[in-house]
Amino acid sequence: MSRSLELPARGSRHISHEPAITSTANPKVAAAARLASRKGRRDAGAFLVEGPQAVGEGLDRLTELFATPEAVDTHTPMVQAAVDGGVHLRVVTPEVLRVLADTVTPQGLVGVAPVPAPDLDDLLSHATFVVVLDGVSDPGNAGAIIRSADAAGADGVVFLRGAVDPFNPKAVRASTGSLFHLPVLTGIEAEQLNDVSEAGLQLLAADVHASVALGTQDLSRPTALVFGGEAAGISSTVLSRCTVSVHLPIARPRRPGHTGHAESLNLAAAAAVMAYAVHGARSHR
Prior knowledge:
The chain has twelve helices and eleven strands. It has a seven-stranded parallel β-sheet, with helices on one face. Strands 1-4-2-3 form a four-stranded mixed β-sheet, with helices on both faces. The protein has helices at residues 27-33, 38-44, 52-57, 69-74, 76-84, 94-100, 120-124, 139-151, 169-174, 193-198, 236-239, 267-283, and strands spanning 46-50, 64-67, 88-91, 109-114, 129-134, 156-160, 184-188, 202-206, 212-213, 223-228, 244-247. The two termini are 31 Å apart.
């Protein structure tokens, strides 16, 4: 169970700390820097959390917080709450922080958090709305979908084996903290989708070429929305386990001189629209 950290009021006392770490060869810095790679995250069971937004959302999950002196002064209440909650504060120079950051212009804070390991059976024991990602390879899309799923009230997001690691720094940043708000499962086998069906959820496969429109389905029922990779789409193995394939109708505006229309929405946009369709149906049941 995560602990709740309360932010001190602005104007809190100055945070005392050891002199800033100035070397990228420092063992603590080097260990954290390895978390930028998938192997490093797998070996350590931890991931990086960059920026004040994500750090603030995951404050009760952090084990370490690397911060520049300027960031400590700018975000004193947040840093103080982290220290009070038992997070190890490592003050570093801006040059050292850049080794840990994934952005071009870091905002001075990079946290380390353990990779959670939620269980599919536990999720399915209560879930009525989940999002499943098959072969999604772009971390930005992955993070954006986690954010949309969170906003639309999904009970969890399931990444099938072979999909991008949602704890990739870019995915974590794109989720804007939503990664901490709901279970995110990784490495799930396609065969385990049978467990999703047996738990009573209909599996709706998003397919731009499907003949069935999303709006024709009863979205108030327990539902799993399944999305495929940006290029290849949903694999045949996964598709065979879905209840039905559905698409989002594309508007065909009738305007003088207008001859074109979008072929489809991009993955993150389609996932957001479909997730909110499920949210709306559930809200009115």
